Amino acid sequence: MALHDTESLQYLSLDDLLALDDARIEIMDGAVHDMSPVGVLHHLIAGNIFRILDAFVLQTGSGTVFMDGLIYLMHSETRGLRHAYVPDVSYIRTASIPGGWQIAKPFPGVPNLAVEVMSPDDKAEGVEVKVQTYLSKGTEEVWVVFPEARTINQHYHSQVETVRRYSESTQIDTSALFPGLELTTDQIFQLPPWAQQRDDAQS
Description:
CATH superfamily: tt1808, chain A
Mean pLDDT: 89
Order of helices and strands: HEEHEEEHEEEHH
CATH class: Alpha Beta
Radius of gyration: 17 Å
CATH architecture: Alpha-Beta Complex
Number of helices: 5
Distance between the termini: 43 Å
Number of domains: 1
Strand order of the largest sheet: 3-4-5-6-7-8
Number of strands: 8
Shape: globular
Strand content: 15-25%
Oligomer: single chain
């Protein structure tokens, strides 16, 4: 199925989505959106988050951390997908994995944690829609990461304080999803020496 005609792809079925072998798309409110290629900084930051969370979760056995590429169907009807998101990093508690799910297919529900690393082409309103959709459908936390500003917004599903903002050298509250994990913004934004040199030169 060609991706050039966006109108023809409204309300894709799951079968239609899986037939798009070489396409990187998300579905927001039934509309198909291309996922733009991202730069090295984006991947370095997402990789830091994945490695830290994955190492901790492997020790605790509480669930599984996934890299970019896993599609979440967000409880959409598979005959006509309303939402299908691909977070940069995500986490699913073992207790949240539904019985009978065929693991070769996209995840039918939502992640317990979704991490969205912002790229220069990302529009704020689109990210806000995604955050609210994640939370309304049951995602416990959404972390929106801004690599250039070195800040993180941590959104919550059901607390009076719906968002916390973290900047330089700040410890992130991981108590709900990863109790016992000590995680700071410095760890998330740490770059390898070769990348740090280029980042410093461009500052």
